[in-house]
């Protein structure tokens, strides 16, 4: 019977393993998100679950040992010595979450206008309120004005994420 399983890959070999599985006509799902790396030559797409991908296969027709021998693979995730199945609903949920992330790719920053109050969610000023100043062009960064003691404002450039 065909089920979804989680396959473990060697470090940074998810895409290679995906292609090798496709060559063997095995349905594979590698959840990935687009990123803007600091280094322009770095990969623009990263696995959502580094080191893991999902395969839709009948283990009575393709053995676990065969799958383990595919270049880039280390094996299938097992629980109690048995390959762990993943429900179709979980796969659909992950696909939906990846779609949502892809569609909202920093669009939430575009909804702010200069003067809007925001809450910083990372770094040394986490949970502090600041005033949105502007989105910095060509980068995934924004400028905010952090109010300090006695009403003085300090400009901060932060990641938009």
Task: Explain how this protein is built.
The protein is of the alpha+beta class and about 160 residues long. It has four helices and 13 strands. The protein has helices at about 15-25, 65-70, 90-105, 105-110; strands at about 1-10, 25-30, 30-35, 45, 50-60, 75, 80, 80-85, 85, 115-120, 130-135, 140-145, 155-160. The strands form four sheets. Strands 1, 2, 5, 6 and 9 form a five-stranded antiparallel β-sheet that branches. The protein has a four-stranded antiparallel β-sheet with strand order 10-11-12-13, with no helix packed on it. Strand 12 (about 140-145) and strand 13 form a beta hairpin. The longest helix has 16 residues, at about 90-105. The chain starts with a strand and ends with a strand. The model has no long low-confidence stretch (mean pLDDT about 85).
State the end-to-end distance: 42 Å
> Helix content range of the residues, please?
10-25%
Alpha-beta content class? alpha+beta
Largest sheet: 5 strands, antiparallel
Shape: elongated
The total of beta strands comes to 13
């Amino acid at each position: 019977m065909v089920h979804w399983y989680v396959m473990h890959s060697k470090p940074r070999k998810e895409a290679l393993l995906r292609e090798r599985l496709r060559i063997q006509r095995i349905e594979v799902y590698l959840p990935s998100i687009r990123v803007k790396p600091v280094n322009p030559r770095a990969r623009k797409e990263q696995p959502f679950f580094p080191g893991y991908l999902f395969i839709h296969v009948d283990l009575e027709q393709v053995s676990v040992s065969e799958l383990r021998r595919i270049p880039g693979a280390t094996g299938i995730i097992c629980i109690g010595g048995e390959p762990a199945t993943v429900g179709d609903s979980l796969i659909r949920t992950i696909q939906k979450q990846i779609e949502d992330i892809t569609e909202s790719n920093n669009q939430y920053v575009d909804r702010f206008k200069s003067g809007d109050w925001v809450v910083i969610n990372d770094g040394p000023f986490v949970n502090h309120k600041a005033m949105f100043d502007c989105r910095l062009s060509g980068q995934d960064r924004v400028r905010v004005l952090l109010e300090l003691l006695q009403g003085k404002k300090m400009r901060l450039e932060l990641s938009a994420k």
